[in-house]
Amino acid sequence: MAAVEHTPDYPPKTPPPKRPISPPRPETSLAGTPRARMQVRNRRSANWSLEAAPWSAKKACAHVLGRLHEWGYRETDVAAAGLTELLVRTAVADGGRRVSVHLADQNRQALIVALSHRPGLAAADTAVLPELTSLGAVSCGTDTAEDGRRTWAVLDL
Q1: pLDDT at position 16, please?
Q2: pTM
């Protein structure tokens, strides 16, 4: 008998391609977080994101005063404008690409916050706090974390 060449009825088995070794997953626990994200609840609030530029302070003042007027507060325009301008100028001086301004009111007080969004800053600068107090802030503060420097002031309305 002559040798008959046999052709398989099915394709030959090939091993699956090897996957590259994946890097380890990043740590996602919140145990090492130095501060919680800012949360404003049960009150009116507004926020704006601005480019970190010299003109940002004036634009932020216009936003804050406009919103305070919408909420019925017109008596403290000078103090609110001064505080907002100083807070935003301080955030712009940190050298980040953007600045965010947050405003909230409760019990005839306004909270104004400026965040620089520049990571890796040194310890919080407290030189601005006496100036905020002289502009009419009843309470103020500053802190630094991974997401940048946060400076805030509370103003009686």
Answers
A1: 73
A2: 0.72
